[in-house]
Amino acid sequence: KGGGGGVNIQVLLRCRPLSKEELSINTPVVITCNEQRREVSAAQNIANKQIDRTFVFDKVFGPKSKQQDVFNHAVVPLVGEVLDGYNCTIFAYGQTGTGKTYTMEGGGGKTQDGELPSDAGVIPRAVKRIFDILEAQSAEYSMKVSFLELYNEELTDLLAPDESKFSDDKSKKPMALMEDGKGGVFVRGLEEEVVSSASEIYKILERGSGKRKTAETLLNKQSSRSHSIFSITIHIKECTPEGEEMIKCGKLNLVDLAGSENISRSGARDGRAREAGEINKSLLTLGRVINTLVEHSGHIPYRDSKLTRLLRDSLGGKTKTCIIATIAPSVHCLDETLSTLDYAHRAKNIKNKPEVNQKMMKSALIKDLYFEMDRLKQELYAAREKNGIYIPGEQYLADEAEKKAMSEKLDRLELGLESKDKQLDELQGLYDSQKVLSADLSDKLQTLQKKMQETECALAVLEEKYMQANNTIKEKEYLIENLLKTEKVLVHEAHTLRSELENTTDDLSGLFSKLERKGKIEDANKNIVGHFHSQLTQDMDILHRNISTSVSQQESQLKVLEEEMQSFITTKGKVAGGLQNQVREMKESFSSRITELHGFASELNLKSQLSSEKLNAQVSAHTSDLEDCLKGLLADADQLLIGLQNGLSQQEESLTTLVEQQHEGLTRNVERTKSISATTMNFFRTIDAHALELKRILEESQASHQKQLLQLQTKFEDLCR
């Protein structure tokens, strides 16, 4: 059951895309949709000023939205409510040609293998959703559908069978709209067909849609000329915990309203103009009902139109309602679009009080069905008998009671008319007396008229002078007003100029102080760079002198080394020469000794006559002497050679060590000199790069300051002008 405060009607907005004709002529777009913020903005030009009006809705679908998106947001929740036992209504509202029928019924695509086409509308998608849920729940249910059309304030059943092959309007029989005694209405004689599958409803929908009144206008090639209401009533069986069978009932009303249209723009003539007038009349009544419900201004004019009577329970009643407002984005439809947006935005504030339909016991429902069958049988029997009354007696008595009430009402109206007639007679007597008085006054009026003519002439002259004076005063007032406005503008401009000049003066003083600080910094940087350059030059001179001194010292050391080497070589040559002479002398002495030995041997041979003892003694003595001499000579030669070799090796080692030390020292000095030179060159390059960068920054700063000064000068000159 609904809450005490009620539930606001849900209002959705859908904007169609531009048509091919509109795209071909580059029609301006004045509607902007923000789906995330649920806003629609309309750009409107009033007195050459663009005014944007923004409307907020429960959901906004832009030109690129799809049928599935609209269905998921608008219909899926209501289908669940219907299956829970509520009455729900969905209706499309908007100007002709904005896609109401497309949204409700679809683009005309055929169902293939039980799958709906992508352009299927709200009605076929809702039907499929209902059957899918019921089949998933394995529920026992019965379903009935009806299809009603309201054309030129006449109700027609679109599901009624054809009555005559030659009838001009063979399928649409006007029907009466009756009160049900509970604040609601019903259509007497409306056909309700029982269905058991979605395909049956698709066929019924296609059959009924083919019978609707449509026509081509300048705004829409297939414009609906009537309102239609497709209703689905579902009875679902439930079992209570006690095992008692209950029936809950839900109803879904899917309403496709005809679009409002401007007759001058749609090109409607004759019958089409009458159709458009009836459509606009019913929609205006709907708008008044919406305004009255929103403003709570007392009487709600439901009875002024059959459309509002049919939608009475959906607007401020016990039904859950969703309105899909459709608009066009082009500038040519701006007036109608704004009207639609206003009505839809107002409808958001309507509060319904939804209530769940009371569940019925299965036995009670069967009893009601039996009563209905008996009534239908009585009507059928009376129609077959044709005894002067073609309806049952009870119905006849009810009609007679209604006629009696109408006659009593007419009697009361006649009594009222009689009292009005008496009042008219009294007024006629007063009129006669006034007529006599008017005859007397006519003579006086003639004399007064002459005086009035003279007065009018004088008055005309005075009026002319007054008009001239008034025009002069108006011109002066206009000039004074313009001068005052100009003075105000000039004073305002002067204040603005003065404030800008003050700001400019402050900016200039700040700029000059900044330039002065920058000049000081640049001078300090120049002094630092000069001092560094002079210090670096001095250090480089000292380094150069040190390197030169080191090189000269190395050269002198090398010369000394060379002289020592030459003296060493000379000394060694002399020693070697001496050794050679000594060796040669030793060889000569040795050879002479050997010669002496040979002579001695020959002498021994000659003196062989000597005794062996004496000879052996002499030989052994001479031999021992010779061996001692030879041993001494060999020892002296070995010592001399060993000393010579040791001296040569020591001299070679010292010389090698000295050469290596000198080479290492020179290498270190050269590498140190190279690294110092490379560091110095890199430093100079870095200094040059920083100097160039500082120069570039100074030039850019001077150019920027010059540009700012020129801009300031230009602005100042413009302000002075």
TrEMBL record:
Record has Cell membrane as a keyword: no
Keyword annotations from UniProtKB, A to Z: ATP-binding, Coiled coil, Cytoplasm, Cytoskeleton, Microtubule, Motor protein, Nucleotide-binding
Primary subcellular site in the record, as a coarse category: cytoplasm
Keyword ATP-binding carried by entry: yes
Entry binding sites for ATP: G94, Q95, T96, G97, T98, G99, K100, T101
PROSITE patterns: KINESIN_MOTOR_1, KINESIN_MOTOR_2
MF GO annotations: ATP binding; microtubule binding; plus-end-directed microtubule motor activity
Cell compartments where the protein resides: Cytoplasm, Cytoskeleton, Spindle
GO biological process, one term: microtubule-based movement
Single GO cellular component term: spindle microtubule
Residue ranges the record marks as coiled coil: 366-479, 544-571
Ranges for domain Kinesin motor: 8-350
Pfam (any one): Kinesin
Alphabetical list of InterPro entries matching this protein: KIF11-like (IPR047149), KIF11-like_kin_motor_dom (IPR047241), Kinesin_motor_CS (IPR019821), Kinesin_motor_dom (IPR001752), Kinesin_motor_dom_sf (IPR036961), P-loop_NTPase (IPR027417)
Family the UniProt entry places it in: Belongs to the TRAFAC class myosin-kinesin ATPase superfamily. Kinesin family. KIN-5/BimC subfamily.
Function description: Responsible for microtubule translocation. May be important for the organization of phragmoplast-specific arrays of microtubules. Plays an essential role in stabilizing the mitotic spindle. Required during mitotic cytokinesis.
UniProt protein name: Kinesin-like protein
Organism: Aegilops tauschii subsp. strangulata
